Description:
Layout: H1 11-31, E1 35-37, E2 44-46, H2 53-68, H3 71-88, H4 91-98, H5 106-119, H6 126-141, H7 146-159, H8 170-184, H9 198-224, H10 241-266, H11 283-286, H12 288-307, H13 313-321, H14 324-347, H15 349-362, H16 368-382, H17 389-405, H18 411-424, H19 435-445, H20 451-479
Antiparallel strand pairs: 1-2
Helix pairs in contact: 1-14, 2-14, 3-12, 3-13, 4-10, 5-6, 5-7, 5-9, 6-7, 7-9, 7-19, 8-17, 9-20, 10-12, 14-19, 15-16, 15-17, 16-18, 16-20, 17-18, 18-20
Amino acid sequence: MMNSKWRLPHPATMFLLLTLAVIVLSWIFDIYGLSVFQPQTGEEIRVQSLLSPEGVRWLLRHVVTNFTGFAPLGLVIVAMFGIGVAQHSGFIDACIRGGARRKHNPWRMVILVIFLGLLSNVVGDAGYIILLPIAATLFHSVGLHPVAGIITAYVSVSCGYSANLMLSTLDPMLAATTQEAADMANVSPGNTGPLCNYYFLFASTFLLAFIIYQVTRRNLLPALGEYAGHIRFNGYKQLSRKERRAMIGAVSIGVIYTTVILWATFSSWGILRSVNGGLIRSPFIEGILFLLSFGIGLMGMVYGFASGRYRTDGDVIEGLTQPMKLLGVYFVIAFFAAQMFACFEYSHLDKCIAIMGADMLSSIHLGSLWILILFILFTALVNLIMVSATAKWTFMSFIFVPFFANMGISPDMVQCAFRIGDSATNAITPFMFYMPLILTYMQQYDKQATYGSLLKYTWRYSLYILLAWTLLFILWYVTGLPLGL
């Protein structure tokens, strides 16, 4: 059980209090007429009070749509369908038992979860939804605390959102914005392609993996101790011949399904590519979470029928409804979180504070390296209230790309510094879109888990990653190594 010293209100209550705080702050800043100018368009952005007649009317009209339009809500439900069938049919349990014919080294399991989390940004936000519950089961299966699995996976996905060994969905979007900012300011764009930071982010993957592994092993697991909760792991039971056949059948179907999806994406037919032939905003990228969930659910269904666990379609439907009990808690937390995010966006508090801070930073006169370090720290701070990388970079690039260009610093270097600060503090902000889901996963194993519980264990990761990643950036800058292709 987690230390009660860090006890905070229930996550739903916490988001309600944050909503009230946003409402009050919007009222105060509206009285003082706080406003800024959007650097890309020159449009004035003014704080809007949620206590004004217009604000009250907006809130009452949008309470329901704020919830139903909450971005992660549909994604979570769709992903849970596939995971529910795979779990209910016994497929996930069989995978763990099948892999346990040799005794697993628990530290290898930790490394596996870390790298899966770091590489998950290839498929967008799927790591938050799919990997975390699986990581809890994997940790539990080797005698480690399941909450440690959730936290380790969460930190790997969130703090490592920019690091990868491959091209991620975020790379081309940020590069396009950087190119636009450079063109608007008549700055030589230099190398601003999707792979302009590839070498640095490739090396960063191993640095982050090392830090997350060390903090998990030396701090997180000793602090959590042994799991003594109500969910028990029944140990390993060797797979029967029927279960092995079912497993082979399910995996074979999974391989065929993956081959078909890859062929439909990368072949000359390319029905899952966008109309211009690229992957940005293509059906493959936009629907990747559904494709993953469907594939996992398909393998679970095949395993269920082949093993004898499923006999009718009613059994499959029962598997689809299995996660609803867990999602009941998530829906309550997500309702209040959705109101908080919507109120924050309506008030323009995040944009006003961030743009004011950016203008202030750009007025400081120091050496180029020191300004870059301050820029990393500033981005990490802004990330605590404005998590979306694309939203931040949409306005920050038009301020800082020309600012640093005047100091002789190329746009790809500025983008690289931005990505460090943008990722490092993801694990500690309460404004993370998937925070309600993370807390729901944690409460499945520990009913007392709150945001304070999570913060207690994640602040070290964010701090050490921010410091080490910044040092790596300084080394790269001083040595003049190329950032990417």
